[in-house]
Design goal:
The chain is an all-alpha fold and 434 residues long. Helix content is 70%, strand content 0%. The chain has helices spanning 3-29, 32-53, 59-78, 83-97, 110-121, 128-140, 144-151, 155-172, 181-203, 214-230, 235-248, 274-289, 296-309, 318-331, 335-349, 351-360, 371-383, 387-400, 404-423. The longest helix has 27 residues, at 3-29. The N and C termini lie far apart (55 Å). Residues 98-111 and 427-434 have low confidence and may be disordered.
Length: 434
């Protein structure tokens, strides 16, 4: 393997194992920022040693063992005399002496531990933005740039939020716990948002060579099911679970054998998971029974349910979807929601009506670097026969996309538009109405 291959393998292993490392160390240290820092130290150790020694057979266990050794060194250096730290040090020493199989380092129950980590990161002492950014940084392993793309804000803004959130956690001595009763309800909205964004990153990765990150989708789904159990009377917990179940039901149909994206209208619906659709519909029904049909997650789930009910792409109830997006836009003012509404309007009323909405969004500061604006615009222009403009829109969108699979897809669409232009020249760009 080349140095570049080893570096790529290290980052891939670390991205997968990072949540396990942070949750395991947080349980031992009762200090989330310190656990995150030691996890980073383990990554640096891997970057230093693996190019020389080769990638270990069990990279996750190697990273965990290294992080625990660093934790023990930290406690010893700091000479912490408090009883809690003495007990933690003894526990770590015992584990170091009784670890014949490094897999034992990964045997922690990351189920409750992961949820506990999210609830800790979502403490009310932290700002809403800080909670979500910190959790995405630790749990998804997202870079500040990737998180910034999710929120459509500058990288420096996210970096500052994460630094402030870590400082607050360190200075406040907050308990590493899953709250109950009123405290759980107080944090639930932020926790749901974190789980929602974890799922979204798994569903369509912001960066990298793969369009999907299935392990993140699965983890978000697992946590969503737990949340619906521990907060059974919270309609949005069921709404979010419905949204994730219904979206995840399409996973097998969303890529081809080479991992290339297959867009919704081109998917083989026979490959959609009917059992998962049924679970999603049940969760959506429960949200409605609890009076939450008009909630942020339930409305999105209702939109996905329209696709799930349609036997074919042509049978999709686009007017209903358009109406649901209009309700969602009233609930949350977001240019991204408005862009999604434009897609539905285009299917229900035609591309000209949709393009008018998209063109109004062109000056939205939050969408300046958002590749899907150009992607949607290119699709609408193609339908209107304005292939030269469509090609330019797809090419610009490809430059903005961070995921390689999306870049390739957008460039293919640009090439298709160029081919169509040679066959059907259509009106010149100067004929475009203002």
């Amino acid at each position: 393997m080349t140095d570049a291959d080893i570096h790529h393998a290290i980052l891939a292993a670390w991205r997968i194992e990072q949540p396990r490392l942070i949750t395991g160390l947080s349980r031992l240290l009762r200090d989330v920022p310190l656990a995150e820092e030691l996890t980073q130290d383990a990554l640096l150790a891997a970057l230093e040693h693996w190019p020389v020694t080769g990638i270990p057979e069990k990279p996750g266990a190697w990273l965990m063992a290294t992080a625990k050794r660093r934790a023990l060194d930290h406690l010893r250096r700091a000479r912490m005399l408090a009883r809690k730290h003495e007990m933690v040090a003894l526990e770590l020493e015992a584990e170091q002496q009784a670890m014949p199989d490094l897999d034992a380092a990964l045997d922690d129950d990351i189920g409750d531990e992961m949820l506990r980590l999210i609830f800790t990161a979502c403490h009310p002492l932290l700002s809403r933005e800080g909670r979500v950014a910190l959790a995405l940084r630790m749990i998804c392993g997202l870079t500040t740039e990737e998180i910034a793309r999710s929120f459509l804000v500058p990288d420096t803004t996210i970096a500052q939020r994460i630094v402030r959130a870590k400082r607050t956690l360190s200075e406040s001595g907050l308990a590493y716990e899953t709250p109950r009763g009123g405290e759980l309800s107080e944090r639930l909205a932020a926790v749901l948002e974190v789980v929602y964004l974890i799922f979204n990153e798994g569903y369509t990765a912001a960066r990298g060579e793969h369009w999907l990150r299935p392990q993140l989708c699965q983890e978000a789904l697992r946590i969503g099911r737990v949340l619906a159990t521990i907060a059974p009377h919270e309609p949005e917990a069921h709404g979010l679970l419905a949204l994730m179940e219904l979206n995840a039901s399409r996973t097998a149909a969303r890529t081809d054998e080479a991992g290339e994206p297959i867009l919704l209208l081109e998917q083989n619906r026979a490959r959609w998971d009917l059992l998962q659709i049924r679970r999603g519909m049940q969760a959506l029904g429960r949200a409605g029974e609890l009076g939450g049909a008009g909630g942020f997650y339930a409305l999105q789930a209702a939109i996905v349910a329209c696709h799930a009910r349609a036997q074919t792409a042509e049978a999709t109830d686009w007017p209903r979807i358009s109406a649901l997006y209009a309700e969602l836009a009233k609930l949350v003012r977001s240019p991204v929601i408005e862009l999604n509404r434009a897609v539905a309007v285009g299917m229900a009323e035609g591309p000209e009506a949709a393009l008018a909405i998209v063109d109004r969004l062109a000056d939205e500061p939050a969408l300046k670097a958002y590749h899907l604006l150009g992607s949607v615009r290119g699709d609408l222009l193609c339908k209107l026969g304005r292939y030269d403009e469509a090609r330019a829109a797809f090419e610009a969108a490809a430059e903005l996309a961070g995921n390689k699979r999306e870049q390739d897809l957008l460039r293919r669409r640009a090439a298709d538009a160029a081919d169509a232009m040679s066959i059907f020249p259509g009106p010149p760009a100067t004929a475009r109405p203002g």
